[in-house]
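[job 4471] stage=fold_predict status=RUNNING
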Amino acid sequence: MANPEKKNLPADTWVRVAQNVTTGFVFVKKYGPKYITTYRMTGNSAPSHIKTAVPVSDSFNIESDDPIDVYVMAQNKAGEVIVCV
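[job 4471] inference complete, writing structure tokens
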């Protein structure tokens, strides 16, 4: 796994935090906003809604047989996560 990378998340905006990955971890660094996450198969367009998103509490694992792009949104205010892939 590479060095951890900090990702700043503007409020209410999908941010691709990992690209073309099959494993990794995402940790919430800034508490306050609510976080949600979703993924797309690598090469597909970014999400445009939150219907397929799931809530994030403190962290989550990235696990996929095929390469995916992982997106996180901080809701209502800016947030920050640490990504290890």
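[job 4471] summary: The first strand starts at residue 5 and ends at 9.
[job 4471] exit 0
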